[in-house]
Write a structure and sequence with these properties.
The complex is a heterodimer of chains A (about 350) and B (about 375).
Chain A lengths: L7 H13 L2 H6 L6 H10 L18 H13 L6 H13 L9 E4 L7 E3 L5 E9 L6 E7 L5 E6 L4 E6 L5 E10 L3 E4 L6 H33 L1 E2 L2 E2 L4 H30 L5 H29 L10 H11 L6 H15 L4 H5 L3
Parallel strand pairs in A: 1-4, 2-4
Antiparallel strand pairs in A: 2-3, 3-7, 4-5, 5-8, 6-7, 9-10
Helix pairs in contact in A: 1-3, 1-4, 4-6, 6-7, 6-8, 6-9, 7-8, 8-9, 8-10
Chain B lengths: L13 H19 L16 H10 L17 H13 L5 H17 L2 H12 L5 E4 L15 E5 L2 E9 L9 E7 L12 E7 L5 E7 L5 E14 L3 E2 L10 H9 L9 H10 L5 H29 L5 H25 L10 H14 L10 H11 L4
Parallel strand pairs in B: 1-4
Antiparallel strand pairs in B: 2-3, 3-7, 4-5, 5-8, 6-7
Helix pairs in contact in B: 1-3, 4-5, 6-9, 7-8, 7-10, 8-9, 9-10, 9-11
The chains are: A alpha+beta (about 350), B alpha+beta (about 375).
Chain lengths: ~350, ~375
Amino acid sequence: MAGDSDNIVAETAARILADFADPQTVNRAKNDAWKAPLWRALSEAGLPLAWVPEQLGGSGASLADGFAVLGAAGRAALAVPLAETMLAGWLLSQAGVRAPDGKMSIAPARPPDSLAVGGDGRLNGRALAVPFAGEAEHIAVFAEAGTGPIVALVAAQDCRVEDGKTLAGDSRGTVSLDKVTPLAQAPAPKMLDRMALMLMGCVLRSVQTAGALETVLALSVAYANERVAFERPIGKFQAVQQNLARLAGETAAALAAAGSAADTVAQADAFDEALFLEAASAKIRCAEAAAEGAAIAHQVFGAIGFTQEHVLHRFTLRMLAWRDDFGNESFWAAELGKHVARRGADEFWPLVASR
Amino acid sequence: MSADLQFDQIRLPAECQTLRAEVRAFLAEEVARGTFDPHRPGHGDSHNRAFSRRVGTKGWIGMTWPKKYGGHERSFLERYVVTEEFRVANAPVRLHFVADRQSGPILLKYAPERIKLDILPRICRGELCFVIGMSEPGSGSDLFAAKTKATKVDGGFKISGSKIWTSNAHIADYMLGLFRTSPPTKENRRHGLTQFLVDMKTPGITVNPIIQMTGQHDFNEVVFEDAFVPDDHVMGEIDGAWKQATSELAYERSGPERFLETFYVMLELIRALGPEPDLRGAEGLGRLVAQLHTLRRMSVSVAGMLQAGKEPVVEGSIVKDLGTLWEQKLPERVRELTAFLAPNGGNRATLEEQLAFALAVAPKLTIQGGTTEILRGIIARGLGLR
C-alpha cells in the first residue's frame, strides 16, 4: 500500500524490481549474477541515495517517497542493500557529509554497540550484525566523541569485516574498526543520537516487513484457492479460512503500525517521544506479525512451502531475520515499557491519544 | 476481491485535540461530582439517564448527524475522540451509546421524515435508549435463521415470538429489530426479514431479565405477543433487510470500544509496576503498549476512511477481531505480569478488584457484536476465499 499508485518514485522502484528482482526468477538463479544489473538499474533511478539531497550527491526524494520504495522492496523480499544504503545516505546527509555511489551499510546496527572517535580523530570499536557487511563498499558510522557524536564515512576495506549470514542467507557480519581514518566526518546534528538512528532503522525494517507480509498473504490466498485436497480447494475449508483471516490480521497490523511510524517520521521535526512510541511500537508489532504470519503461511503451504524451490522462504525467512536488526522486539518492548512506567499511569493515555 | 488491505494515514486534526480537552474536563467534573468512579468499572450502574442528558447537552450524541435532526454535523474523527475518552474513563454511556453508534444512522437512512424529526433530536439530547433485536433462541450468529414473525394487519404488523440476549432491553425506549415477514426462498435464505422500529412501551411486549455470570443484569429476553407496529415503522425494504446490514457494520466493528473494554487493568498494571519496573515487567508492558498503539492507529485509520466515504469492511472486521482478542487477553497478561509483585503494594486492592471483574467479563468480548469466527468468515470472504 503506502500510496504506491500515486507515487512516481515508488512506481519506478516497483517496475525495476519487477524487471530485475522478480522473486521467482531470483529464487531459480544459480548464482548472484542478477544483483549487478539490478543495482545498476536502482542506481540509475537514484533510489539508493533517495534520501540524500541533490547538493550532497543524491536524488533528494522525500522521506515519504523513500518509505514507499521500501514498501515495494519488502513486497519483493529484496536481497540487496537498498534500505541500508538509503539509511546510510540519510545518516550522512544529517551531518552534511557527501554520500558516495555504491552499496553502503550502517554501523552500529544494534543498540548496545558503540563506536568511538579517538583523540587522533580515528575510529575504534566493534559493531555486531551489520547488515550486508560483506557487500557494502562504504559504511556510514555513528560514533561517540568527547566533543559530542559524529557521523563519518569509512571505506569498508579499511575495516575488518567478519561476514556471516542471516536466517535468509543474506550477508550480515561484524565490522571492527581499529584506528580507522574516516574518508569524511562531521558533527552529528543535536537531535540525532544513537537511539534515534536505531529508531530510524526500526521504521525501515517495519516498512519492509509489512511489505513482505503483503506478498505472503497474497501468495497464501492464491495457493489456498488453487490447491485441491479432499476434492475442493483448501481455501474452502473453514479451518484454513480462519488461519488466512488471522494472517490478514497480522498483515493489517504490520501495515498500519509501519505506515503510521513512517508517516510520523516523515512529518516529524525531531526524534521526540511521539516518534519513539511510533517507531518502537512498529518494530515490536511488525516483528510479532512476522513470526505469526510466517508460521501461518507455512502451515497453509505445507511441504511445498518448505522447499528451496518454492519462493515462500524468500519472504518468511527475510522478515524473521529483519526482526533482529536495530534492536529486536524484546529490546524495544523493554525500552518502551520502562519509558511508560517512568511517565506513570496518568500520563499513559495522553501519550497514546496524542496523534 | 483481492487481498489488498488499506490503512490510510490519519492524523487527528487540531479541532479533535481541542475537543479532547473539553471532554476530559467534562469527565473530570463528572467524577468529582460522584457520577461514576473511573477506577471501579464493575461498580455501580453502567447507565445513568441524568448523565446521558448532560452528554447530550454538550452536543456529544449524534455528533455527525444533520443539524435538522438535532445533530451537530461534526466529523467521524471528532466522534471518535469523544468515544475513546468516554471509554477510557469508564463513563456510564450505556443508555445512549447504541443509539448514537448504530440505531441513529439506520433511522437517518431508512426512517420516514416524521419519525426522524421526532426521534433523532431526542437521541441527541440523551433521552432515548435503543436496543438491537437480532438474536433469538434459535438464531444467534446465524441471524437469517430468525423466526419471530411480523404479520401484516390493517395499518401495520403484529409481532409474535421472542428475542434473546437483548442487552439493555429493561431500560430501552426503542428496539431496532429484524422480524420475519416472509419465508426464505430456495435461492436466497436471507430473504424474508424486515427491519422494524419498535416502541418498547407497545402492549404485548414483556422483558424478562437474564442475569450474566458476572452477576450483572444486561441481557434480557424480549417476548412479543401480537405487539402492533405501524406501517411507517418499517425501516427500509420489506423482506430485504439483508441488503441493509453490511455498511453499518464497519462503524460497529472498528471503534475504540472494540479494544478498550478492559483498558483500566493496563493503567493499574502501570501503577503496580511503579516507575522502575524489572525487566520482565518492562518488556511485558512494552509489548502491550505496542499492541494497543497499533490497534488504535488501525481503528483511527478506519474512522478516517469512513469519514472519506470509503467502505473499509474487511479492515473494520480485522480491527474487531484483533481488538477483542487483545482486550480479552489483557487481564490475563496483567495477572501474569503482576504475579511476583509484593502482595501488599499500593494499588493491590484496586488491581485485584479490577482483575476479578475483567477476567469474568473477558469471555463475552469475542462474542458480542459478531463472534471471532463470524468476523474471520467475513475477512476470508474479503480475501476472495468464499
